[in-house]
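Technical appendix A lists one of the benchmark inputs used to test multi-chain prediction within the project. The record comprises two sequence entries:
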Amino acid sequence: MNKDALPRWIDIGLLPLINLAAALVVSGIIIAIIGENPFVAMGVMLKGAFVYKGALGYTLFYTTNFIFTGLAVAVAFHAMLFNIGGEGQAMIGGLGVGLVCLALDSLLPPLLVVTVAIFAAALFGAVWGVIPGWLQARRGSHIVITTIMFNFIAASVMVWLLAGMLMAPGQMSPETRSFAEGIGLPQIHDVLNAIGFSVAKSPLNFSFVVALLASFGVWVLIWRTRLGYVIRATGHSERAAIYAGHNPAHIIMIAMAISGGLAGLMSLNEILGVQERVILNFTSGYGFTGIAVALMGRNHPVGILFASLLFGALYQGGAELDFEFQTITREMVLMIQGLIILFSGALAYLFAPLVARIYFRLKAPSGGGNG
Amino acid sequence: MADLWMQFLLTLDATLRVATPLILCAMAGLFSERSGIIDISLEGKMLMAAFAAGTLAALTGSAIAGLAGAILVSVMFSLIHGFACITHKGNQVISGLAINILASGLTVTLGIAIFAKGGQTPMLSREARFSSIELPFAEAAGAIPVIGPIYKEIISGHNILVWCALIAVWITSFIIFKTAFGLRLRAVGEKPEAVDTAGISVSGLRYRAVIIAGILCGIAGAYLSVAHGAGFGREMTAGKGYIALAALIFGNWRPVPALAACLMFGFLDAVAARLQGVEVPVIGQIPTDLILVLPYVLTVILLAGFIGKATPPHAIGRPYVKER
């Protein structure tokens, strides 16, 4: 090991925490400038996220969204692809769910419809991800620009369909009709109450279980399968992958398909878990938050689970700000999110030299004095 | 026939109004990206600038103060981008994205704290805005049939920032292609090692490029809230920064073709606004949503090399690490 290198626990544990703290300190300063007490605001958010009745359910509900979009960004990252199209992929995934449910809900039993819809969510998202992948692999377009454009195209397609041919008859707002009775995912509080636990009502649903399974699946895929190895190898060095006999174009497309599929699954939580119809803008920026989640979680499923929980708490706690304060609202969360992306993404190693100096100074006496 | 001609002229007039912020942002992006720094934060800088302009114009009653504040705030965000990308060699896309998200949250948060109007700034009076400039003889010339209205509707009656945008294209073109600074700027985006070997600071050039980008985005933001509009509204940039980025790519990172792309995208926007809800024989109602999505679709097709070829600066997106 390089003697200048920091130990792993600092690199993947301490530095991200310092970056998070820096983002929170800057947010706190802004809150103080506005004239509110940052510690009171923090307290309100924590209570709103974990303490109030049903709060934890809501927090985990948002967490579910972020697990999916965070995993999506992470899988693409391992192939050195920056997929910022999670937002669009989730929208199109939701479209897939909607089309399946609207077409089949009067024909097939609900369980079958829901199962098909889950696959449709992943498939539609995967298709919306694989097109930019193909354009990068075969036509040399830059994936960042293409996925940005695909977000806008997806949003337009949704407006066009939901205000057009998919709009519920006799309805003024751009949304589809509700799915038939029984089409939807089981709610966690119903399940827990049925087996004897008393749990407050919340929108937390079966998607959370799917998200946990997906996290495990991504861990297995990336670190325990041949394909995952090849994805990582291509990400590290495309040339090495070619010498090893792999086709980077295929790998790019496969990675983008998996990434898009994971983003598409996010729609389950909102569409099948809560709305039971397709509405406009149900993604509300969760696709972008996925980037922050993947950055904080260092592209590892375990890190992503923790980061998703953090953002879930921020979103749920942020909603509480609206009730408690006159001057701060949930948009504050967007600001904090921007700062977190800045500090843990673009400025990830801002504090590394400082930490390194302190670490080696502390270590120097026991390390023989030459470290 | 005369009516149709008038309709067409009014659409062109609207095109120029819609295209102005696109042109300014595209030139901003051009400076930054030609120097090798990807700038997807055009959107966020423009949003912050629009907010600063709206706020200052409302508080001081002066449009100039608004413009100055807009430029200052936008340059500050440029420097954050520069600090992350140039000094700390961070990921340029991530930094840009962070600025965009930060701007979305910060404008609303500060807006509520200052004005308590749900994130908007108060409506500006006429004096606190850049008003349109009627050129001499506009009324008289308008009476001349056919060509008269061209002068009256399209050329006359714009505010000063519209002219600023057009002049910015000319100045950008001059700086980039005719000055030593421009030559070095292009070189640093193509082959920073060469510039470094010649004894010129790569970081210095790149910082200057992002600062210029900040100034231009600042003017674009001020245009939205104190010239075209009469106050700041939340998310008022509505993706214009990204369209400008698309126009820049479409113009192959060159000022005049980028201007043409901005005008084309502006024209699509103006046409879509005019056709909203209009019934056309045979086709029926025109799907204006699909017209509005054309800039994005065209950019994707162009980038994929199906029509022409977009060639980005060679060293774009790569932080420069000095050889030891």
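Chain A has two domains: 1-36+325-371, 53-323. Residues 1-36+325-371 of chain A form one domain. Comparable benchmark entries are summarised in Table A2.
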